[in-house]
Amino acid sequence: MATNKESGMAEVVLFHHVQGLTPGVVAFADELRAAGHTVHTPDLFDGHTFDSLEEGSRFAGQVGFGEITARGVRAAGPLPRDVVYAGFSLGVLPAQKLAQTRDGARGALLIHACIPVSEFGAAWPGQVPVQVHAMEDDPFFAEDAEAARALVTEATDAELFLYPGDRHLFADPSLSSHDPDAAKLLTRRTVEFLGSVDGRSPR
Fold first, then answer.
1. Of 55, 147, 185, 202, which residue is 20 to 30 A from 195 by alpha carbon distance?
2. Nearest alpha-carbon partner for 125 in 161, 85, 89, 91
3. Are 73 and 100 in contact, with CB atoms under 8 Å apart?
4. Please, are residues 14 and 87 in contact by the beta-carbon 8 Å criterion?
């Protein structure tokens, strides 16, 4: 039987947002699986999910953002190195750290957020393609927009996609913030991105 790499498919580690591993995050992962990719969805909240950003943010603050990032790094430990790291909002923390610091990364998808590259290293790894996706008037992303533009300017292979609107977790179909049209376009772009990186040699 052909492996993912042999069949031209990518392997993805997808980290959830601050409301937890919701049915919507799982549904997004299932869309990628339906396109033929392998997707891992680590639960960084030990089964907890929350009905609002505020509740999830309080829980994340209690756990600690450093600990949540460390949980993501530990979750990736047993997995292959030649994967694409993806994160929704809070999940961008471990996704971006792993993409910048774990040898072998094939790519990164930073959705709803972007951390300054300097948090995890001197520069973005030259052989790791990256995409950032967010709504242009999302007040949460406004804090990250400068970091995202700097990443796109500095990195060898980087793109920033801004969608019309002001919703934060627009790609999660289980939340009221879901935007079907933007989510559909993001999913299509994600599948295209995964198809473009599967043939690359990992760094």
1. 147
2. 85
3. no
4. yes
* Residue 151, C-beta contacts closer than 8 angstroms, at least 6 positions apart: 114, 117, 124, 130, 132, 158, 160
Structure tokens at 24: 């919507």
Query: Cα separation of 190 and 103, whole Å?
Result: 22
Q: What phi and psi, each to the nearest 5 degrees, are found at residue 3?
A: -80, 170
Residue whose tokens read 């973005």: 124
User: What is the DSSP code (8-state) at residue 80?
Assistant: -
The model's confidence at residue 199, banded by pLDDT at 50, 70 and 90, is low
Beta-carbon contacts of 8 under 8 Å, excluding residues fewer than 6 positions away, are: 195, 198, 199
In which residue are the tokens 């392998």 written? 38
- Per-residue tokens: 82: 């030649």
Closest alpha carbon to 169 in 160, 179, 161, 158: 179
- 24 φ, ψ (degrees, to nearest 5): -70, -35
CA atoms within 13 A on the CB side of 143: 7
pLDDT, one tens digit per residue, over 6-28 is: 456 899 999 999 999 999 999 99
Average of per-residue pLDDT values in the chain: 94
Distance in angstroms (rounded) separating the CA atoms of residues 138 and 49:
22
Contact 142, 172 (CB under 8 A): no
